[in-house]
């Protein structure tokens, strides 16, 4: 929400500040922005009157100048106003009025306009000090000013000579504002006009005692009032009877009130939206429409702010529709651009006049709209039960959303290509990323359809430089291009995400080696913990997808290694953001849980967890069973465990007294494991192949074939490990027939085992037999004894270390004893002979150095 | 039987004399419950420092449905001698025995074990319970099922040393206290010499045990030699025990190795605990020194400013030193290792002899 606000509505910082603060100084600010607006208006008018579009540069410069001037004066004012007492204020008022009068004499409307603004700015303070009534001086001044203005206008109509541009501008501004302002003070003004002297007399008398009069108001004041009235902003407008008479002229004023009431409590947003819909209907120019749309879309998003609830489908659709409309409008009128950080047009009465060929900037952010729209859809998908028709229904909107994104991308791209605009690279990156995130997890056929439909919706001549229309059918190319674009133009998280998306996509499309290389080259494993949680989730997803891809390619070992981290943790759900895992002893605060809920991926992006588990267990089985057979009973390698999860399951399964026919995936794998361990590879293959979940994979038949083959091979290995001690020789042909493998394959497997020193044997190729070497294997007692001696020497070493520490390596009295013990270990038992000291001295010194080093560190 | 007047509390127990009946009962009970540990009570009498064990009875094992696996039931069985229900049962049994005029003094308890794997906290606690609560002059008979099956009967009598008793009573097994008391792992258990005693009546009965006459019709002896070797005529009271000629050494050594490795693992665990303790102690002490220095500096400043100095012993309140882990486990572990070593030591000479005997017989040309 905050991001959205930030990006889209730079409508005016001043107004947003107004909402927050209630100090005097900010009243000035509002005035200041008003002033700016008038300057701006002047500017454009200037352009039109000069009939010279080429003067942009100078004008811009001028504008900036005046602006800064105004700002400067504001700055000064601020100081004085804040510090002034009542008298000082009145003095200032008088001074201002004098200036206006002087300007009237020389017909300098520019000065009048500025001074008039200043006057109005002073007014609220004066009213406050004058018991809620405007001072008479002020009334007099404005009444006179009105009269003079009318006079001037009349005169101008008569005289053919045109006024100076600056003057015209000032005059117009003043006229508009006077008309508005004086309405509020009409009573006083009338009184004044009836009898000027009497009125002023009264004034003189009552100068000290303030008069009770209705305060005169500027539009800025109305806003102030709204703020003061605490959130009843809209109702006030309604009460004013303005709700019924929307005219194209008043669009901006209405918009302003709405924008100002934004983010406050008790504003009826639905009502506002209705108003804006009406405004949209009556708006005439593109500019008006764009402005209305730019306001109505965020308001729709605001309807459901807060983390708990999601946007209703209707609202979302309307918002989407409006966004499309907006984009269409923008496409049609290239002169109007919506960019972030543009200046706001503050004059509600007047529209900017557009010169063809000249670009007019409107503040707003299309990218944020798109992002918000995307987020809202995701959020709503998170909340819908994925097994209902509603979900599918909602999912259809994704196509609309996607075309919106593409459209926005085209638009942002066009902005970017315009060198005058200096559009930020960031926004393009963001849209590209969004687009990528909508396609990376989809199979290419789906993406192709999506792309096709999207381009169909777009006008014929629309085309993108990043992703040309011609290439839209080539999905892989599309992903490639999008990612490459991001690699080139972005950095940090977006780049990493793009990388992960591409890896995911490649893995999804069976390009294991490419995916793996990219994954490794990215070096994200080392830095992923520094990224935000969503990127970490994406990383996990990618890792899992790579693992699955390896499995489909028949690379069991690689698959197991990739999946190990996620599946071995028992927290798959959490790591992949596919549902909350209720842990028994977890102490998750509701806050954390809420955050976690927000992170959940919508169902259509899920990776099937059951399939994942099945793949993981199958891979583990294929690796673990031969390992278990190889390890047998030797205690050294007993510790080597590939997958703890699998081991635990297997142990649990073996403990069961009665095992029924397998019911779920796990049972299948476990029973297959047992069969494989017993050498019944056929049974194992049957069990594995009867798992139903393989059907979910593309080309399940190939997968099953691959699995059968793997099982045959691992079965052979298991058999050799288990029964090698009982054979002297073994015919390869027998093995081949036993496992229904070609002889060459058997020979290959056996050779591999021999070369890895897993099997103490030789391959007799003449007789086609395996000859086992006997007595090479250590007996169990021998290996146990070896382990024991290792451990014992370890203990001795650690004892020596401890002694070193205790004696700080100085006490020789102890050293002699331990040394003797060490030296005598081979020969005499428990010998404490000092005579052996020399023999072991060298080794001992080395060792001492290490221990000393440690002592040095510790002390 | 024994003269109660000779009984003196001061003289230490010198040995244990076990009736054959007791041995048989223990053997039967232990092999029945194997591999679960069997426990029971011993009754008998103390005669001049010789503890005569004349009878025994098993403790009932509570049949808890084994949900948590094997480990728990064995623990339960091992802890049986000091279980409340069993104490009552024991008292009841002894009362009944008195009624039938059998020795009715509780002199200890017995337990079965496997490969000498009995030096653990459970045993210690049981024996401590007996020696403290019931009678100082009690023993624990340890029957090793596995070793007995390999030939020689393995039955040992143990007591806790008085030194250990006092340490255990205070339950202080810190490095400091151990250094002070000089308690070593060798001093935990005291083994008493054990003799098996048969009454003369029994011995003569054994020698005269009549064999039942053969039921089937006997064949006539073919020759004189046949007649001489007739099994009916001369039957020694005990058949030679062929178990003693068992040549398989591997299983025993393997098991011992396994157990030794286990002990080393346990030792490592204890070591790690202790190292952890030392590290945390070091940290705390560093903190305390830092605090003390700070306080000293502060006090110096306060004295200079003529203020009353702050107390310097507040650290005792502020910092809590970690408690030292009990060294008892490692002591017991060491004792256990010693037990294994002794077993192997006792095993090897016999086996070596057997091996040599076998070798000279089997190798042709070398036979003497």
From TrEMBL, chain A:
Compositional bias annotation for Gly residues: 820-841
Coiled-coil annotated spans: 175-202
Superkingdom of source: Eukaryota
Entry keyword set: Coiled coil, Cytoplasm, Initiation factor, Protein biosynthesis
Keyword Cytoplasm applies: yes
Region (Disordered) location: 1-79, 799-859
Biological-process GO terms, alphabetical: formation of cytoplasmic translation initiation complex
Annotated Gene Ontology cellular component terms: eukaryotic 43S preinitiation complex; eukaryotic 48S preinitiation complex; eukaryotic translation initiation factor 3 complex
Subcellular location: Cytoplasm
Domain PCI: 603-777
GO molecular function: RNA binding; translation initiation factor activity; translation initiation factor binding
InterPro entries, per database record: EIF3C, EIF3C_N_dom, EIF3CL_C, PCI_dom, WH-like_DNA-bd_sf, WH_DNA-bd_sf
SMART domains in the record: PINT
Composition skew (Acidic residues), residue ranges: 15-53, 68-77
Family: Belongs to the eIF-3 subunit C family.
Record-linked PANTHER family: EUKARYOTIC TRANSLATION INITATION FACTOR 3, SUBUNIT 8 EIF3S8 -RELATED, EUKARYOTIC TRANSLATION INITIATION FACTOR 3 SUBUNIT C-RELATED
Role this protein plays: Component of the eukaryotic translation initiation factor 3 (eIF-3) complex, which is involved in protein synthesis of a specialized repertoire of mRNAs and, together with other initiation factors, stimulates binding of mRNA and methionyl-tRNAi to the 40S ribosome. The eIF-3 complex specifically targets and initiates translation of a subset of mRNAs involved in cell proliferation.
Record HAMAP family: eIF3c (MF_03002)
Protein name: Eukaryotic translation initiation factor 3 subunit C
Gene source species: Rhizodiscina lignyota
Classification lineage: Eukaryota, Fungi, Dikarya, Ascomycota, Pezizomycotina
UniProtKB/TrEMBL annotation, chain B:
Pfam families: eIF3h_C, JAB
Subcellular location as annotated: Cytoplasm
GO molecular function: metallopeptidase activity; translation initiation factor activity
UniProt entry keywords in alphabetical sequence: Cytoplasm, Initiation factor, Protein biosynthesis
Domain MPN per the UniProt entry, residue ranges: 16-164
UniProt-listed GO biological process terms: formation of cytoplasmic translation initiation complex
Signal peptide: none
GO CC, any one term: eukaryotic 43S preinitiation complex
Chief location of this protein within or outside the cell: cytoplasm
Subunit structure: Component of the eukaryotic translation initiation factor 3 (eIF-3) complex.
Biological role: Component of the eukaryotic translation initiation factor 3 (eIF-3) complex, which is involved in protein synthesis of a specialized repertoire of mRNAs and, together with other initiation factors, stimulates binding of mRNA and methionyl-tRNAi to the 40S ribosome. The eIF-3 complex specifically targets and initiates translation of a subset of mRNAs involved in cell proliferation.
Entry similarity comment: Belongs to the eIF-3 subunit H family.
Name used for this protein in its record: Eukaryotic translation initiation factor 3 subunit H
Species for this entry: Rhizodiscina lignyota
Lineage: Eukaryota, Fungi, Dikarya, Ascomycota, Pezizomycotina
